[in-house]
Amino acid sequence: MFGFKKRHQPGDFAQISGSARFGDNVTSGAWTRVGPKAVIGNNVSLGPWVVIHEEAQIHDGAQLGNWVKVGRGAVIGKNAVLPMNMRIQPGVIIPENSVFEGHELVTPDGIIPHRCGGFVLSGNPNGTRPLHLQGGFGEFEIPVLEYSDDLIEDFFWGRSDALEAYRVEVNTPTVEREVDEMPEI
Fold this sequence. Notes:
- By secondary structure, the protein is mostly beta strands.
- It has two domains: 4-111, UDP N-Acetylglucosamine Acyltransferase, domain 1 (3 Solenoid); 119-168, no CATH class.
- Helix content is 7%, strand content 29%.
- The protein has two helices and 21 strands.
- It has helices spanning 4-7, 149-157; strands spanning 8-9, 15-16, 21-22, 26-28, 33-34, 39-40, 45-46, 51-52, 57-58, 63-64, 69-70, 75-76, 81-82, 87-88, 93-94, 105-107, 110-112, 119-122, 131-135, 138-142, 167-168.
- The chain has a seven-stranded mixed sheet with strand order 2-5-8-11-14-16-17, with no helix packed on it.
- A hairpin with a 2-residue loop joins strand 19 and strand 20.
- The longest helix has 9 residues, at 149-157.
- The radius of gyration is 20 Å and the shape is elongated.
- The model is unreliable at 1-6 (pLDDT under 50).
């Protein structure tokens, strides 16, 4: 444990497994969790609420934004940039110097944009009216008796599309306006 403070500066309430290994100059935000046998390289930045599952590898210079979750055994390449609200499925390899937009689910088969991220869940789970879930990935009306945190978590990780059954099509009104013609020059 000697030199721990010089090598890794954990944020408040960080949970770091004793078997995780860290390179030099690693910083992590509040509530960051690093699982067993994870390997974090040099000059890595982990934002708040980042979760690195067991045996994942984060190579030198990688930057992980807020609420990024890296699955078991996934590999994040050197200097990769993963902005907020991303999920990397287990075993996925992100090439070095990759830069993402954020809110993406990265699977072995490719990238699903706008699948993850912040959302608003409204309604009373103890009530009788459906719960309303809204985010960048769509809007959903979920019957109270069918709602569970696992339903949303499985959707974000790409383990299930069961949430799709509750998708609500949102009709956004279109505004028509007259466009003046460009004057000739």
